[in-house]
């Protein structure tokens, strides 16, 4: 039987008025929650972006029960779609395209979302965004030397980052030194224009330049046969359909606030909108950025904490802009007219691309550190006005933050085996990891990476099935 205080507690639970504190065991007890707020699943997926949505659907299709904990109000992550009321068109200002490979095709076909050719525009202009003048960076054959180098260390992006031990010092050189050592000056600008924003290119460790611009995943000379990029009429559609299919198992506006983990099972307390829920599962598939701010509520042990504490991150912001005065169908690449190799220095608007509406463009802005929305808006507006020859008054229709974006560690951490240690966490204490920290080569590559994790997750679930009644309040009554 139970005493008066437990009775009061259970009554509170039944009426749904529960306030569990972080350190009390009661927050992991189903009796502290209304029955509807306790979810028992084979796998909990953290993050409903590219890799998390793919993983949740792959596991569901393999017969496993899943729930997804997503911080934002919708699935899709780095996908941003603007609904243009006047035309009914979906205008993309986040993720633009996918590889037309068999894994990606199967995923989109499952949701009956057809591919269309990527809207790449008519031509590209390379201009200094601060002065509105054409710049012609040198380009030459040394890109082949670079391609060879990347093929030696990163031939299979979808298998993740696996480095020789000891880690070759070439990979830990600041890229400015690598360029000189291997005389690839005439490839520097092209490499910059392929990489997304992260640290300033010449300051980056060569490893991160390999991850950002490699022959296996970018259309550069000396690279793998290029699988044409495709888009959809609405890049949010596949994620919206997955969210609808998961129904109540798609927890939106939700974040983990406390955890109890072992190899056999995981309990997560999730703040979901205004309510708290208890999620009990065999395993977790984690797909959100691997930074301590996200992971410190996951009951980390010292081994995990020591790995995650090394990670820092860079920033990426996107906007959709109309009344630009830019040339219809053109894309614009930034190039500084007065820097080494014409590589612009952050923070900067680095790329402006056309949408399906002539006057409307998306603009990408990168920074080494988080930057205020007002500063980003002002810089993009100014750059576009300059590129229009001071003729336009650009209006920003939509803004999105993709920060944290790149997840990076120092040369010392890499030398000390950071990537081996991160890879070795797969399955440790009930957690598997996917997403940008493990494979930076885009959505299609991440679907593939995530698919490779599924057998291991299946095995762990089969070995540690959560009892069907794990979510029942077993006190009294
Ligand atoms: C602007 C932009 C454009 C890009 N364009 C392309 C492109 O055209 N093609 C391409 O292949 N790749 C593109 N990329 C690369 C992109 O990073 C990958 O394609 C892919 O979206 C990464 O998937 P992910 O699952 O790692 O991250 P995401 O898609 O961001 O998914 C992570 C999810 O986790 C959620 N989350 C974050 N923190 C938490 C938390 N604490 N708890 C719960 N949930 C959380 C996020 O809200 C998000 O939904 C682009 C990236 C950016 C930023
Ligand atoms: C639990 O801890 C997190 C961060 O560790 C904090 O943000 C949150 O407010 C705490 N919740 C409670 C109920 O104490
Ligand atoms: C694109 O798809 C999303 C998700 O399903 C939906 O909310 C949105 O209305 C769609 N936009 C257009 C223009 O069809
Ligand atoms: C994608 O690839 C398939 C198979 O090769 C092809 O049939 C299809 O036309 C391609 N789609 C686009 C939009 O390029
Ligand atoms: C690249 O590697 C190939 C074979 O691995 C070799 O034949 C070629 O000469 C190399 N090219 C450069 C520019 O290093
Ligand atoms: C998935 O990744 C592996 C490893 O890089 C690769 O061999 C395979 O071709 C990829 N599959 C697809 C469909 O791209
Ligand atoms: C850069 O542009 C400015 C302004 O047009 C010009 O004065 C300067 O000569 C240019 N510098 C180089 C290196 O081209
Ligand atoms: C868009 O621009 C192109 C190229 O200038 C032009 O041919 C086309 O008519 C324009 N479309 C609209 C709707 O204005
Ligand atoms: C646009 O204005 C800036 C000053 O705001 C000036 O430096 C630049 O020369 C002008 N460009 C044109 C094409 O008039
Ligand atoms: C948990 O699993 C890991 C392997 O992922 C293993 O090293 C460890 O010994 C296990 N711990 C327990 C308590 O079983």
UniProtKB/TrEMBL annotation:
Signal sequence, renumbered to the chain: 1-20
Transmembrane spans: none
Protein's UniProt keywords contain Signal: yes
Pfam family, one: NAD_binding_8
Superkingdom as given in the UniProt entry: Eukaryota
Keyword rRNA-binding assigned: no
Protein name: FAD dependent oxidoreductase
Species this protein is from: Recurvomyces mirabilis
């Amino acid at each position: 039987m139970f005493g008066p205080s437990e009775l009061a507690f259970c009554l509170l639970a039944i009426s749904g008025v529960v306030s569990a504190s972080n350190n009390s065991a009661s927050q992991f007890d189903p009796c502290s929650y209304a029955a509807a707020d306790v979810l028992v699943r084979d796998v909990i997926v953290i993050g409903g972006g590219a890799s998390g949505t793919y993983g949740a659907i792959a596991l569901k299709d393999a017969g496993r029960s899943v729930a997804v904990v997503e911080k934002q109000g919708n699935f899709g992550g780095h996908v941003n779609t603007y609904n243009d009321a006047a035309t009914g068109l979906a205008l993309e200002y986040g993720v633009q395209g996918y590889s037309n490979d068999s894994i990606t095709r199967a995923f989109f076909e499952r949701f009956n979302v057809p591919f269309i050719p990527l809207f790449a525009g008519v031509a590209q202009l390379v201009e200094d965004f601060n002065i509105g003048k054409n710049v012609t960076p040198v380009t030459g054959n040394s890109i082949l030397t670079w391609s060879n180098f990347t093929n030696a260390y990163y031939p299979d992006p979808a298998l993740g980052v696996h480095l020789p031990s000891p880690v070759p010092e070439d990979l830990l050189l600041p890229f400015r030194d690598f360029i000189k050592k291997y005389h690839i000056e005439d490839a520097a600008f092209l490499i910059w224009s392929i990489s997304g924003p992260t640290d300033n290119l010449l300051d980056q460790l060569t490893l991160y330049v390999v991850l950002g611009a490699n022959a296996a995943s970018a259309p550069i000379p000396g690279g793998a046969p290029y699988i044409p990029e495709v888009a959809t009429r609405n890049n949010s559609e596949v994620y919206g359909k997955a969210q609808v299919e998961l129904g109540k198992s798609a927890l939106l506006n939700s974040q983990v606030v406390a955890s109890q983990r072992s190899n056999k099972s995981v309990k997560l307390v999730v703040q979901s909108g205004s309510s708290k829920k208890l999620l009990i599962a065999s395993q977790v598939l984690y797909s959100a950025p691997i930074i301590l701010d996200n992971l410190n509520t996951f009951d980390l042990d010292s081994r995990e904490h020591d790995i995650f504490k090394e990670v820092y991150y860079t920033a990426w912001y996107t906007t959709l802009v109309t009344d630009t005065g830019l040339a219809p169908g053109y894309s614009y690449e930034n190039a500084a007219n007065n820097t080494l190799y014409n590589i612009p220095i952050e923070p900067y608007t680095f790329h402006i691309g056309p949408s399906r509406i002539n006057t409307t463009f998306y603009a990408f802005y990168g920074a080494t550190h988080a930057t205020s929305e007002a500063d980003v808006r002002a810089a993009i507006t100014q750059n576009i006005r300059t590129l229009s020859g001071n003729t336009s008054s650009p209006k920003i229709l939509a803004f999105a933050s993709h920060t944290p974006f790149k997840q990076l560690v120092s040369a010392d951490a890499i030398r000390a085996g950071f990537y081996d240690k991160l890879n070795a966490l797969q399955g440790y204490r009930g957690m598997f990891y996917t997403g940008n920290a493990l494979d930076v080569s885009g959505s299609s590559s991440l679907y593939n990476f995530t698919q490779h994790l599924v057998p291991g997750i299946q095995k762990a679930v089969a070995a540690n099935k959560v009892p069907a009644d794990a979510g029942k309040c077993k006190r009294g009554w």
